Every structure is written in C-alpha cells, then in structure tokens.
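Work package 3, deliverable 3.1, input record:
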Amino acid sequence: DSGVTQTPKHLITATGQRVTLRCSPRSGDLSVYWYQQSLDQGLQFLIHYYNGEERAKGNILERFSAQQFPDLHSELNLSSLELGDSALYFCASSPIGASYEQYFGPGTRLTVT
Amino acid sequence: GNSVTQMEGPVTLSEEAFLTINCTYTATGYPSLFWYVQYPGEGLQLLLKATKADDKGSNKGFEATYRKETTSFHLEKGSVQVSDSAVYFCALSRNSGYSTLTFGKGTMLLVSP
C-alpha cells in the first residue's frame, strides 16, 4: 500500500459524458501527478500540481482539467468523453524535496461505451 | 527530449532462472533512474532507484546499476519466482525542479513453476 488513495476504482460511462476522478496523496506529500495508461500509448504524464498550484502539463487534452484543493486532494475532470479515453488513470504523490520519487495510487479504470 | 527504451516482452522464464530486462535512456543532464513494477490489477510500485552514476539500486533481490557511459539501467535478479510475474517499467526523472517521470513501454515477465 503506497498511501495514495484513488476513487472510484472502476467507472463506466457513455460517450459525451463527464466524470471526476479523485486522488488523495500520501500524508505530508504536497505534489500530485496524474497519468494515463492505455494499451496503445503506454503510461503518459498528464499534469502536476504542487500545493494547489499547477506546475507542469504533459499530454493532457483540452477536454481534461484538474485541480488540487487546500486539503491537498486532487480531482481530474474528463469531459465530452470519447471511446479513446478508456484507460487506467493513476495519480501519484512525491515527498517534499524528492519530487523525482513518486508513489502511485491503485488507479481508476475508466470505460467509455 | 527525454526517452526510455526497454526490451520488448513478454519475457518467459522458469522459476529460479536469471533475469535481465534491458533499459537504456536518453536525457539531458543527469537524471534519476527508477524501476517500477505493476502486478496484475494493481497500480505501479517503486521497486528500486538510483540517483547518480554508478549507484546500484536494490530491493527484493532485484538490482540495477546506473551506467552513465552506456546510458543504461538494466534490471537483474539472480533467481526469479512465480510471484515476480508482473510488468516492469523503467523510468527517468530530472534531479532538479518539479520532475515528471518518463516511462518506458514496460516489459511483461511471466515466470512458470
């Protein structure tokens, strides 16, 4: 158990819909990272937040957005969903002063039908 | 930009065989290097890390040495077990600033009794 929690574990929804994925980092970690894992693209970095502020963006679509709240949990919002958005979405957190070392949550499996 | 190349799998071994999974990288500067493992149906777990050249990371019988001259970080284990069956990801991260992980595509290891 990494100490990072993600909810829900599974999500099934239809094309065009909007969903929110939630992540709570390890106690004491200020950074949250979001990743997408799919069969064709592998593991791709989406976005990084540090203490409530966006720090880096990767291959995140404009239909996707994220935020980190004062209690440090983070939410990834996916809208206008397409079949190709079906994937595993992971969040990770890292210790203060060791942002290169990340601990992953169990993931949310999103299926778009 | 940064990239990680791993040998393609699956790697199929019998229990107690010697394991090597090759990983090479391209990066500017001196990155930190990681191996993550993903067991079926689970999130990624940090297996081992090395933060500078010639460092050897080790955990649970697995080892990898940071070779700057060959830009490699090959994963080895002297005697694999059935329980080691998983997907192994090599990754790198910058050592400074707010770092994101760049992953290889992953190598599936299947160990039979």
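Chain B has a mean pLDDT of 92.
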